[in-house]
Every structure is written in structure tokens, then in C-alpha cells.
Design goal:
By secondary structure, this protein is mainly α. It has one domain (7-219): Tetratricopeptide repeat domain (Serine Threonine Protein Phosphatase 5, Tetratricopeptide repeat), CATH 1.25.40. 75% of the residues lie in helices and 2% in strands. It is built from 14 helices and 2 strands, in the order H-H-H-H-H-H-E-E-H-H-H-H-H-H-H-H. The longest helix is centred in the first third of the chain and has 27 residues, at 19-45. It is elongated and about 60 Å long.
């Protein structure tokens, strides 16, 4: 049976997984990530390939107006669109399985999180299929945040560990390992929490998370 969380641990977990805090802190990487997908597609697939697959090219053209609104924090307009352009929700449905469709699903998921619709956000993120290292990891980690908000810490921990290990890097790996540790603490699984905290200490000591991880290790008796 999971141990009861202390008020301090609960508050810290909420701060770590808070949707508003996450989006405020990482809004620029989230936006840049979306633009990076276009660069990747154009670089690897090439113009001729896009011409050969008009639906793919159309998907990249379809979401730009809505993405502009997303960049400017007009999430409702970005998701729903207006009489002048399609919103991300419509683009996601129409171009599912394309690069533009992935970005649309991603944006709809972010908007759903901000509105507190975490189940809906999970569905949107599950529809994304990004090859990009950071963005692909973050989409998985965002699902972990949704499960944390729903207090399903077991699934959250699984998603955080998956996000940390999908493509290891100094930005997302320690961040999601720490979130996994906090989720394990919420479950009362201190051995598992200690395992991921020790991993941060060993493999990512220079990261933001690594610089204060010792206090988490000490706190649970490591």
C-alpha cells in the first residue's frame, strides 16, 4: 500500500508537474519544436518528395495560421480557427498521420492541458509521432504530466521513464527522471525513487536537476 504523502511532498510534486508552470517554462521550446519539424521534413524528404505527396505538403500549409495564433498565446483561436482559417483540431482530423497533422495534434494537446482536460490531452499526444529527439521525448513526458494531474502516479512514472530513456540527452533525460522519482515518492516507492535519483547523480551531475539531487536522495534516506 502506498504511504501517505506529506504536504511538502505533495506540493513539490504539484509544482514539478504543474501544467501552467511547465508551459510557461518550456513554451519557447514547444514552439521551436513545432517549427523544427518543418525543417526536418523539408531537409530529409525534400521538395520533390513533398510534391509527389501533395497531402503531406498540404498538411504543412494548412496549420500555419493556427500555429501563428498558438505562438501568440491565442490557444482557443489556434484550436478552433475562424472563418478565415482552419483550427488545429480540424487540421489534426483532416491530416492525421502527416507532419502537419502531428503538429496539430500536439498543439491541441497543449491547449487541452491548459484547460484541464487531461484525458483529451493524452489522446492528442498519443496521436503524435515525432522523430525529433527533444520534441518526441517531451510529448511522452507531457502524457506523464497529464497522468500526474489525474493522480495516476504509477502510469505517470512509467511515462516519465520512457521519456527519459527514449533518446537520452542532457535536457529531457534528467528532467523526466526527476519527475519519475517524484511520482514514485507519491506512490510510496522510495526504492524506485532512490534508483532514478542516483541515476541523475551518476549520469547527469551537471544538469539543473543534478545540481540539487542530493537533497532528494538524503530526504528518502539514500
Amino acid at each position: 500500500m502506498a504511504k501517505k504523502k506529506t504536504e511538502a511532498q505533495q506540493e513539490e510534486l504539484e509544482q514539478l508537474t504543474s501544467t501552467e508552470r511547465f508551459i510557461d517554462k518550456y513554451k519557447q521550446p514547444l514552439i521551436i519544436g513545432g517549427v523544427a519539424i518543418i525543417v526536418i521534413v523539408l531537409g530529409f524528404v525534400g521538395y520533390q518528395e513533398l510534391i509527389a505527396k501533395p497531402h503531406e505538403k498540404e498538411s504543412l500549409d494548412a496549420y500555419w495560421n493556427a500555429f501563428y495564433e498558438f505562438e501568440n498565446d491565442s490557444l482557443d483561436l489556434a484550436v478552433n480557427g475562424n472563418e478565415n482559417f482552419e483550427g488545429m483540431e480540424e487540421v489534426a482530423d483532416e491530416y492525421d498521420g502527416t507532419a502537419g497533422g502531428d503538429i496539430a495534434h500536439y498543439t491541441v494537446g497543449i491547449a487541452a492541458m491548459e484547460d484541464g482536460n487531461f484525458e483529451s490531452a493524452i489522446e492528442s499526444f498519443e496521436s503524435c509521432d515525432f522523430e525529433d529527439v527533444v520534441l518526441g521525448n517531451m510529448v511522452i513526458g507531457l502524457q506523464g504530466d497529464c497522468y500526474s494531474e489525474l493522480e495516476d502516479y504509477e502510469t505517470a512514472a512509467e511515462m516519465y521513464e520512457e521519456a527519459a530513456r527514449r533518446e537520452t540527452n542532457e535536457f529531457t533525460s534528467p528532467m523526466y527522471l526527476k519527475k519519475a522519482g517524484m511520482a514514485y515518492e507519491a506512490l510510496g516507492e522510495t526504492d524506485e525513487a532512490l534508483r532514478v535519483y542516483e541515476e541523475i547523480k551518476k549520469d547527469w551531475p551537471e544538469s539543473t536537476e543534478g545540481q540539487d539531487i542530493e537533497k532528494y536522495i538524503t530526504r528518502i534516506g539514500g
